[in-house]
Amino acid sequence: MQNEPFFPHLFESYFIALGVLLGGTLIGGLSSFITGKPPLTEIVRISSSIRIWAIIAAIGGTFDTVYSFERGFLEGETKDIFKQFLLILSAMGGAQTGAIIINWLAQEQISS
Questions:
Q1: What pLDDT shows up at residue 110?
Q2: Cα→Cα distances 33→68, 94, 98, 108, Å
Q3: Which of 52, 62, 81, 104 has its CA 20 to 30 A from that of 89?
Q4: 3-state secondary structure string, the chain?
Q5: Distance from C-alpha of 96 to C-alpha of 50, rounded to nearest angstrom
């Protein structure tokens, strides 16, 4: 991430989170179909539980983020904190977009 420009990385984190969420839920739905469970219900359930993993995958794991926050606080580099915040926000947006698409396609109302 250090040699890469920031804005392409911002878009990548959005679409990686979106892809992880969509791909994970669709493959999970296929497995629920094979095992005899209701696929649409399982797809919606999986999309809500896989959301945090999509965010983590999009930002490249947690250690880089923790290191950037540490450097920002201890060395006074607030620009790194702001960049990491935007990357996390972008990944959250991608995961939320994926969850909205899944809920829209499945048309399921599941109460937890």
A1: 55
A2: 42, 26, 21, 16
A3: 104
A4: CCCCCHHHHHHHHHHHHHHHHHHHHHHHHHHHHHHCCCHHHHHHHHHHHCHHHHHHHHCCCCHHHHHHHHHHHHHCCHHHHHHHHHHHHHHHHHHHHHHHHHHHHHCCCCCC
A5: 11
Chain centroid to Cα 33, Å, comes to 24
Q: Could you report the per-residue pLDDT of 55-110, keeping only the tens digit for each?
A: 988 888 656 666 776 777 777 777 878 888 898 899 999 999 999 999 898 886 65
CA dist 88 and 60 (Å) reads 10
Question: What type of residue is 8?
Answer: P
Q: What is the pTM of this model?
A: 0.81
CA torsion through residues 85, 21, 51, 108, sign? positive
- In Å, how far are 1, 10, 24, 44 from 4, measured between CA atoms? 5, 10, 27, 35
